[in-house]
Amino acid sequence: MIRFEHVAIYGCGLIGASFALALRRAGFTGRITAAGGVKGPPEALERGIIDAIENSFVSDTKCEADLVYLASPIGAIIDFLHTRSSRLRPDTLVTDAGSTKGEICEVAGKALPADIHFVGGHPMAGSEHTGVEYASADLFDRAIYALAVDQNTNAEALEKMEEVLTAIGARAIKVSPETHDAAVSLISHLPQLTASTLASMLDSREGESLAGKLAASGWRDTTRLGASSWNVWRDIVVTNRDNISLVLGRLISELQETREALDSGDLNRVRDLFLRANQAIEEHRRLRYQTFEKM
Fold first, then answer.
1. Which pLDDT does position 295 carry in this prediction?
2. How far, in Å, CA of 141 to CA of 261, rounded?
3. Which residues make up the CATH 3.40.50.720 domain(s) of the chain?
4. Cα–Cα distances in Å, from 250 out to 56, 92, 188, 263?
5. Does position 151 have pLDDT exceeding 80, yes or no?
């Protein structure tokens, strides 16, 4: 069930356009508009993903949407919360898809009027690609979708948001902004920085080297995230710097221990690393199955 009549998407790239497509697939018959950026909304309109460009955020008119979905980079989300709240009508539900939640939720709590309800969100779905052309109605299928909640979260707004996520095929998990940011630093932000580092080690100047010629599916799978845009990741790094630094330190320590084991010829320690990794992956698969088996 989707208890909204007009959804306005701010930041109509991969996530925002996919959200629109997922709503339509779920049977949403209301109005969908989009704003934010000079390229995304017009392209989404041309492709039939949205019904119209949302002009209220750059004019003196009120936005008539009862759900506003902020899917732009984190800095733009924060700027929207600071500068566009006066354009929203009372009882609007505002949510976001930012990859960090602490600063966004803090700003929302201070900047939005009391009659505007905010539920922070983060879909654990996406791609190294950006843009409307990569949008897909099934992007959120069987995806975990974190909802950042605290003692100030409006219960009815939270319920409505959970209903939307169920309709588009996602599974909501309620967490605090702080625990969310600590968790994603390990399972999202650290893999991104690791993939970028590994990819950069195959220097473009060495493109004709043997390593470049031999690099195949294993290297491509491991470094896929290295194609991600810094324009997207800059704000993530800035707003979750302390947590990312902490897990980077853990990774460096683990790699140093593996290096010492290799240098000393202690293959048992290297074997134990593989065994722990196997067990962790198996446990992740089991937990994910349990999460979705009742959907």
1. 55
2. 42
3. 6-175
4. 46, 42, 15, 20
5. yes
pTM of the full predicted structure?
A: 0.91
What rounded mean pLDDT belongs to the chain?
94
Q: What is the pLDDT of residues 93-132, one digit of tens each?
A: 999 999 999 999 999 999 999 999 999 999 999 877 788 9
187-214 average pLDDT score: 85
Smallest CA-to-CA distance from 141 within 295, 262, 245 is with 295
Task: List the structure tokens of 53.
Answer: 């460009």
CA distance 126 to 144: 11
How far is residue 277's CA from residue 275's CA, in Å, rounded to a whole number?
A: 5
Fold entry, domain 180-264: 6-phosphogluconate dehydrogenase C-terminal fold (1.10.3660)
Q: Within 10 Å of residue 294's Cβ, how many Cβ atoms?
A: 6
The CATH fold assigned to 6-175 is: Rossmann fold (3.40.50)
Residues forming a β-bridge with 147: 121, 174
Torsions phi, psi of 52, nearest 5? -165, 165
H or E segment at 282? helix 267-292
pLDDT band at residue 60 under the 50/70/90 scheme: confident
Q: Angle at CA 215, nearest 5°, toward 191 and 223?
A: 15
Domain with CATH 1.10.3660.10 in the chain: 180-264
Burial degree of 265 (CB within 10 A; 0-12, 13-18, 19+): exposed
